[in-house]
Amino acid sequence: MEAGLQVLQAVTAGKNVHYNLSEYPFGGAGIDQSGEPFPASTKAGVLAADAVLLSAIGGPKWDQATIRPETGLLQLRKTLGVFANLRPTVVNPALIERSPLKAQIVADTNFLMVRELTSGAYFGEPRRLTQQDALDTIYYSRQEIERVMKVGFQLAQTRKQHVTIVDKSNVLATSKLWRQVAHEQVAQFPNVTVDDCYVDAMAMNLLSQPNQFDVIITPNLFGDILSDEAAELTGSIGTIPSVSLGKGQRALYEPIHGSAPDIAGKGIANPFSMINTIALLLKHTFHRPELATKIDGALTRTIESGVVTPDLGGSAITTEVTQTVIHNLEGGA
Ligand code: IPM
Ligand code: MN
């Protein structure tokens, strides 16, 4: 978060960008302060904001908490009504050797995963956990599917005009409706081509032909799983940002990685994911795409100069990487 805010400040300096920043405790910090991951004051704060920027939220310290940090995250997403979670996966040519896959397979990979975020298996009722049995429910209404499809198809129009629908419609009722509603969109978006893919095959295709995809629209749980797989294609999960959008202008920005307890306190967390998240913030909330492009350029120059954290094979620490990115903002677009 610190790295991200420093870059935000540097890239907006003297650029006629004005914003007010308020900080609120959340997740583990919320539990420490008030016993709850999503305290009432934080709720009031986020509802009054145009955008919410969230860093990672949990850790072993709170795994046994009555209300876990993750529960707070789900409440936050629901409270903000941000049903469309956008997770772009771009393989940077300068990092291609870091990918666990062969360079010729991941080359030119640039897709956008659109994950439904406020329904499905994460929120379906009833749910139950006893020592004898356990129950979760997957539920989707037509309206919940339609609105996320619309976001995905609209974004496809600004990209390569192709959508891949992910589901398990050979087994699940919710997936049958998912696929049907997806195909109904074609009437409104005639220039967008659509294909379908079962989620198991999708797990395979992301490894065998990741550069064939443009926009991928997936239900909540499948998108959670596939976006971690997708992130790994780029060489590290520490690179991928996300933005979640709802009906109005309000948006939630968060890196897709977790709190990485294994390296906590070592000062070596990869700031790229948060810095990329700042770029999304500048694009979607500030409507200043040229500043986002500036960050993209600075990140690429930083990678090319080899100043990267250990997860990407480097030996730089977080603050060094951040300072280098800020320095590289000067170097042109
Ligand atoms: C994510 C995370 C969350 C999710 C967890 C922390 C609840 O894995 O944002 O992908 O499953 O949505
Ligand atoms: Mn996840």
TrEMBL record:
Source superkingdom: Bacteria
Enzyme nomenclature, EC number: 1.1.1.85
Domain Isopropylmalate dehydrogenase-like: 1-325
InterPro entries per record: IsoPropMal-DH-like_dom, Isopropylmalate_DH
Leading EC class: oxidoreductase
Pfam families (UniProt xref): Iso_dh (PF00180)
Family: Belongs to the isocitrate and isopropylmalate dehydrogenases family.
The name this protein goes by in its record: 3-isopropylmalate dehydrogenase
Organism: Fructilactobacillus hinvesii
